[in-house]
Write a structure and sequence with these properties.
heterodimer; A: 0% strand; B: alpha+beta; Dna Ligase, domain 1; globular
Chain lengths: 313, 475
């Protein structure tokens, strides 16, 4: 496989994952705005931070309002990380790697781009928002389904999955970090009951409310939620889950190519650190510090994969 | 333009249906027009989803357009095709012999059949190719011959596309679409298959592997990139052949071979089906500002390290000035009379011809010698007085830049419109593969059709559409 193709596959699936995460984020913000109007503005601010587009947003807006943030995250052309730009990027990468993906996968991405282009051609009204967010999630699911159902399990598949999980790990860590950072600048107050409402928001943002209930029952305690979202291997958006998958896909590549690359060692170290971490130890060293360190290592791994597999000259 | 009714491929002047179209006509008249309209819309959605789009140069990057598809097939009888095939085969083998000759002893010039300046002063002629022997002796691995029809047995060659003919993906996808939408009509009509084209293309390219190739030849398709108007076709062909689609920045010269950067290091390519023009192929040997090509690829080529398809410099053969000599060229190399006719052509570089052309401008079609895509061309009968005046000035200032041809009464075939079937002018581009194993012509091709009533311009960049092209198994 061409190095360029491997890079195109990885980015195609990073962008697809990003679309879906953005839809969840907007949905979360919307729910808080409806149920807790007094805190809506600060919620929207922190969501912008999660999507790491606060600075760009401020360049184009004077104030933070729900409507403006939703528009910014969903359809602003000036926001490189908006849903409309992410789906366009996913499709451009899909065109680039057209020979590596099946017709079904290509058509699902192409159709997602066509459908979302239409849905997001004008401002989304509040009445329409839930439906449009549903369409984004559904289209993303179609692409994932086509990938699972039609693609050969070879190196092509491995790079697609690496993109998915690197992006997902990044998104989960960012979400946790922003929430944590906004609420508790020092580690001292973690565990108090005041921040439970905030943690609920996070559970919702990763669609893990029901899963948490299944595992932990109805009592929501911040450390339990944090552990569930970071370290529970059953939870498909947790850091540990993502790193299990990243490790497995690098393992397949190693077996397939007969060479172990430095990126594999890197991911193994991250994986081990996650395995040995407990929520208590994380809180002691500082959740923010832990997450910042994780984000930095996740990005370094992505760069190492790009280098190891010759994405560019 | 002649006032007589053009030859229609489906319906005789007395209203009866020509044999090739009988089964189709019977099916069509039993169908509900509303149902067919729905099918036509379905076809468009199908094309959008597949992404068979082309980019229009000079427009925004996002402007991906569909070439309109007409659901009425263009049908050619087996015996008509057999005759055409013989003519195409003769012409393509003459083209290859011609390309070999002009890069070696230039016998055709020595014999006085072709003026020396037609080659020496031809921009497409690459002196770097002199004395080079391409693997297998093949210059034009892939050729598209543009044909028009004016009567039951009268075909003319309009153009020989010997550089990088495009459109074959439409031939294949149009058929796929028809099979998908109207499987039942294929049961009533025995239509020759086109679907083996990618497999044959691969075999044909592999048969031209260079000396340096050891083992199974590695084939790749070279594209200028995602923004090229034919990118869809490039990725389609690579996908269908099961080979890599590469761009210049994926390639470099490694140990005397052209190699592609893979996830596991550099891997040598044996045969490169390039869809990049000669000028951009190698910044070290041709245009130095090109970033689409591979520095040094031409040196590897000359040393027998890679096969480039089509060979550099084949553009000489599809030049419109050379076109006017094709009857002589065919006869010179095959020793036979040409089976396919050329459209009579006046070379405006010749003073007598120029005078004739200027006197009869309103009846003629004038083309730029190096133009393509229907741009820079004058269709006399359809032009305004102002356009004729402007073109007259162009002709007088640079006569050598133009050729002129009579306006042919192009055949028509029906398209499906709101008010039922309606005749439109069309042309045909069959695709030809050439390898040391022989010449292979896919039964069918790309039919381009002018969607505007009476229009003679079929180019997709100017509002033309396409049709599925059927060659019947038997008459």
């Amino acid at each position: 496989m061409l190095g360029k193709t491997a890079g195109g596959l990885l980015w195609m699936f990073r962008y697809m994952e990003r679309c879906e995460n953005l839809a969840r984020l907007v949905e979360t913000g919307q729910r808080i705005a409806l149920t807790r109007p007094d805190r809506a503005d600060s919620e929207w601010s922190s969501l912008l931070q999660t999507a790491s587009s606060r600075d760009a947003y401020d360049m184009h807006h004077d104030e933070v309002t729900g409507e403006a943030v939703i528009d910014w995250l969903l359809r602003a052309r000036d926001n490189p990380a908006s849903v409309i730009n992410c789906i366009a990027q996913a499709r451009t990468n899909a065109r680039l790697v057209r020979t590596a993906i099946t017709r079904e996968v290509w058509e699902s991405v192409n159709e997602a781009w066509m459908v979302l282009g239409k849905e997001l051609s004008g401002r989304v009204s509040m009445r329409d928002l839930q439906r449009v967010l549903g369409v984004i999630r559904q289209r993303s699911a179609f692409v994932r389904g086509a990938l699972h159902g039609t693609m050969l399990r070879n190196d092509i598949y491995d790079f697609a999955r690496l993109g998915t999980f690197i992006e997902r790990a990044d998104a989960t860590a960012r979400l946790l970090d922003v929430k944590y950072y906004v609420l508790l600048p020092s580690a001292a107050g973690v565990g108090s009951s005041l921040d439970n409402a905030q943690w609920e928001v996070i559970l919702r943002a990763v669609s893990a409310e029901g899963a948490y209930r299944m595992v932990h029952g109805r009592v929501r305690v911040a450390p339990d939620i944090a552990r569930f979202l970071m370290l529970d291997k059953r939870q498909p958006r947790s850091l540990s889950f993502c790193y299990d998958k990243i490790g497995a896909n690098l393992e397949y590549l190693e077996r397939d190519y007969g060479v172990r690359m430095p990126s594999h060692d890197m991911s193994e170290t991250i994986c081990q650190d996650l395995d040995h971490a407990t929520i208590q130890s994380i809180i002691e060293t500082g959740l923010h510090e832990f997450l910042q360190d994780f984000l930095r290592r996740n990005a370094a791994l992505a760069a190492q994969i790009e280098h190891d597999y010759r994405f560019s000259q | 333009m002649s006032e007589t009714t053009p030859f229609d491929e489906m319906t005789n002047p007395d209203g009866t249906i020509r044999d090739a179209y009988k089964a189709f006509e019977a099916w069509f008249s039993s169908e509900d027009p509303a149902h067919l309209r729905a099918k036509a819309r379905e076809a468009e959605a199908f094309f959008r989803l597949t992404g068979i789009t082309f980019n229009v140069y000079g427009q925004a990057e996002a402007a991906e357009r569909l070439i309109p598809f007409d659901i009425v097939p263009r049908i050619i009888a087996a015996r008509e095709w057999a005759k055409l095939s013989r003519g195409i085969e003769q012409r393509v083998s003459a083209l290859n012999a011609f390309l070999h000759d002009i890069h070696h002893r230039q016998e055709i010039v020595r014999s006085g059949r072709l003026p020396r300046e037609m080659i020496a002063r031809n921009d497409a002629y690459l002196s770097q190719m002199i004395g080079v022997d391409p693997p297998g002796g093949i210059y034009t691995h892939i050729v598209g011959i543009d044909l028009v029809r004016t009567g039951p047995d009268q075909f003319y060659v309009l153009e020989d596309n010997a550089r990088t003919p495009s459109g074959v993906s439409y031939m294949l996808e149009n058929r796929e679409t028809m099979l998908h939408m109207f499987p039942e009509i294929f049961a009533k009509n025995r239509v020759q298959r086109v679907s083996r084209y990618p497999e044959r293309l691969h075999a044909s390219l592999a048969a031209c592997a260079p000396m340096a190739c050891t083992g199974d030849p590695v084939v790749a398709v070279l594209t200028p990139g995602i923004h090229n108007s034919a990118y869809y076709e490039h990725s389609f062909l690579a996908d269908q052949m099961g080979v890599e689609l590469v761009e210049g920045h994926d390639l470099r010269v490694v140990n005397g071979r052209v190699a592609m950067r893979t996830t596991q290091g550099y891997k040598a390519i044996d045969v490169l089906y390039r869809r990049v023009d000669d000028d951009f192929l190698d910044p070290m040997n041709f245009r130095t500002d090109s970033y689409l090509g591979v520095p040094g690829i031409f040196d590897v080529y000359r040393a027998g390290g890679i096969t480039i398809a089509n060979a550099p410099g084949t553009g000489v053969a599809d030049d419109k000035a050379i076109y006017s000599y094709m009857p002589e060229i065919v006869e010179f190399y095959t020793g036979e009379k040409p089976l396919l006719e050329n459209v009579p052509t006046w070379r405006c570089s010749d003073a007598d011809s120029l005078a004739y052309v200027l006197d009869n401008l309103a009846e003629l079609v004038v083309k730029e010698v190096h133009g393509s895509g229907g741009y820079g061309m004058l269709i006399g009968p359809a032009a305004s007085k102002k356009e004729l005046r402007e073109f007259r000035r162009k002709l007088e200032s640079r006569p050598g830049n133009y050729i002129a041809q009579p306006t042919l009464s192009l055949s028509t075939a029906p398209i499906f419109t709101r008010s039922g079937l309606s005749p439109r002018h069309l042309d045909l581009r069959p695709f030809v593969l050439v390898s040391p194993n022989g010449i292979d012509i896919t039964p069918g091709g790309l039919t381009r059709v002018a969607l505007k009533k009476g229009s003679l311009v079929v180019n997709s960049s100017q509002g033309g559409g396409t049709k599925d092209t059927w060659v019947l198994e038997d008459d």
